[in-house]
Structures are given as structure tokens and as C-alpha cells.
Amino acid sequence: MIKGIIFDLDGTLLDSMGMWFDIDRRFLAENGVTDPPEGISWKIKQMTIDTAAQYMIDEFGLGMTPEQVIRRIEELACEEYEQHIPLKKGAAELLGFLRVRGIPYGVATATYRELATAALRRCGVLDGMAFLLTDREYPNGKGFPDIFLGAAELLGTSPAETLVVDDSLHCIETAKNAGFITAALFDETAADEWDEIKAAASYGFTELGELRSLFEDKDNE
After folding, report:
1. How far from 133 is each of 8, 65, 78, 137, CA to CA, in Å?
2. Whole-number Å distance between alpha carbons of 190 and 40
3. Could you tell me how many helices (H) and strands (E) the chain has, helices first?
4. Among 54, 73, 55, which residue's Cα sits nearest to residue 65?
5. Is the pLDDT of residue 217 over 80?
6. What is the dihedral of CA 109, 131, 123, 212, to 10 degrees?
7. Could you count the other beta carbons within 10 Å of the beta carbon of residue 206?
8. What pLDDT score was predicted for residue 147?
9. In the predicted model, is pLDDT for residue 124 greater than 60?
10. Contacting residues for 84 by C-beta, under 8 A, at least 6 apart
11. Which of 90, 98, 99, 105 could form an S-S bond across to 5 if both were Cys, CB 3.0 to 4.6 Å?
């Protein structure tokens, strides 16, 4: 029985992954990297903020500190989060459904806290969150189960009764190996990996609204 939910943010609650692919390329182009390797954005997505900054410095020989990289990328993304990025289809309705059902939920993300907060507040869903955790609190990132275990503790649930909803294979695998129930959510930017992501998860959904079936099913009552 699912008693609490941990949502990813980018590509799961927010329709933002395409923007991040563009931001990565804009940042690198500013620094003379006009033809980055294919798949660079997906590689970076699996890293923490600090690790990604150091990776770009080392990989592309950038004459910057990690703090400078982080600050510039945050500047590039700020306007999008504060003004433009929408919720994914069905997100607001699903969160409203969960509130009515009394099922607590929160967000665990590698996104900058300020950006995540701004977008969720603008979209009118921040107040319903039990928590917003980032890799600033859990610097190992989602390659390790710490952030999911910490989120479950805040929900007051065990991993076996907590659903992790994510669009990334490595996050699904980490949560699954830690004993969580997992739901893979389709995002167009990961279409090539969708079959593998879906196979790794307990459930696979193409839209957020489909998660309601887990709670409308009599087996979860």
C-alpha cells in the first residue's frame, strides 16, 4: 500500500528537460565549446550540481571555478523557472487528487533550490509539498539512496510503502535497490531510453494523471 510519494522535479513535475538541454549548450557556447558531445546533457543530468560543474571544467578546460559555473548556469535558467516553465500535463490535477486523499508528497531534485521553489510557487503547487530536498542537503545525489531515505523519513513512511516517481533510469534504479516502489514517467527527451527505464520500474506511465490508478485500485485502499 502506497502511503507517500517522492516526486522528481525536472521531466517529472515540470516540463523543463528541453530547457536544460538548451541551457547546457548555451553555457558551453559562451565558453567556446560550439560542438559538445552528443548526450552531454543526459550525462550531466545524472550528476549533482557540484559534480557537474567540475566535470564541465575538466572536460572542456574551462578557466572558471565550480562556483562560477554554477552561478552562470543558474543565471541562464533563472528567467525560465521564474516566468515560463510549465507543469507537466496532469501534474496539478494529480497533486490535488493526492491532497484530497490525504497522501503526503514532496520533491527530491538535483535542481537549484531557488529555481525549484520559484517554479513550484508560480505554478501554485509549492504549499502542498511536505518537503523540497536538493543535493545541497544530500550531496551524494540520486546515485545514492540517502535523499530518498531522508524524504521517506519526512513522509513518515517506510521505503516499501513509498512511491518514487522519476523520469531517469539511474534514479529509478537507486530507489528500487533501496526498497522503494518506483514509477517511471515518460519524458520526450528520454524517448530512446524509455523501454529500459520502464522495465526497471515497478510501474511505467506516459502521463502523470495515470498514477491515479494506483490509488483508485481497490488493492491500494
Report:
1. 10, 25, 19, 7
2. 13
3. 10, 6
4. 54
5. no
6. 90
7. 13
8. 97
9. yes
10. none
11. 105
Average pLDDT over residues 167-190: 96
Cα diameter, the chain: 58
Query: How many of the other CB atoms lie within 10 Å of CB of 58?
Result: 9
pTM of the complete model beyond 0.70: yes
CA 154 to chain centre: 18
- Look up residue 150 and give its amino acid: G
CB 31 within 8 A of CB 60: yes
Measure the CA angle with vertex 21, ends 19 and 27; round to 5°: 95
Read off φ and ψ for residue 105, nearest 5 degrees.
-155, 160
Asked whether 143 and 174 are in contact (CB, 8 A), the reply is yes
Task: Name the DSSP class of 81.
Answer: I
Residues facing 184 on adjacent strands? 166, 204
Residue that is written with C-alpha cell 545525489 in the block:
141
Pair 37, 55: CB distance under 8 Å: no
User: Which residue(s) pair with 108 in the sheet?
Assistant: 133
